[in-house]
Amino acid sequence: SQTIHQWPATLVQPVGSPLSLECTVEGTSNPNLYWYRQAAGRGLQLLFYSVGIGQISSEVPQNLSASRPQDRQFILSSKKLLLSDSGFYLCAWVAGGRSNEQFFGPGTRLTVL
Amino acid sequence: RKEVEQDPGPFNVPEGATVAFNCTYSNSASQSFFWYRQDCRKEPKLLMSVYSSGNEDGRFTAQLNRASQYISLLIRDSKLSDSATYLCVVTRNSGNTPLVFGKGTRLSVIA
Hints:
The complex is a heterodimer. In chain A, about 0% of the residues lie in helices and about 60% in strands. By secondary structure, chain A is mainly beta. Chain B starts with a strand and ends with a strand. Classes of the chains: A mainly beta, B mainly beta.
């Protein structure tokens, strides 16, 4: 069966520090992968999605970036965090083909101080 | 108009009640529709897909009206464990495209 992992689970970082969040998927190949952010009391905002290795689509201009170095690995990064980057970061995958059902990882709760 | 609109609630209902959530979407090209459930401080989990013919899974019934661009979720015989935020989700376009999430409707089932 397929599983999706995210780490770390929680993170507290000072303003201006770098960020690297990792997401890996097991039990599937060539998935579509997504990064979302959910700020306190708000809906899910799509940040990036990837349909294959090295292919990244950015939804919202900001100081975040994403990379997909391997088929089942998706990384979210920042060179300098802002206070507004605080939130719940969720990685999701879709098996591909005709299904659009997305399955989420457990998320990383980031607090920028 | 927002891509996906939901009544934020909260809906406070007693155990055993029937509750209905509504959702409208703006993009007529959307092809796939879902309801997700999100517990406090947890990731969203797929509750059910929504088909044009309507579909039922136990106490949960989902309906889609493409002409009105309207989706509904009905929960019968509410349980305390149904307390959560329910997210209405649609695809942006046809095919395997990013999903657009509503902000969710919060449900509290009270003993």
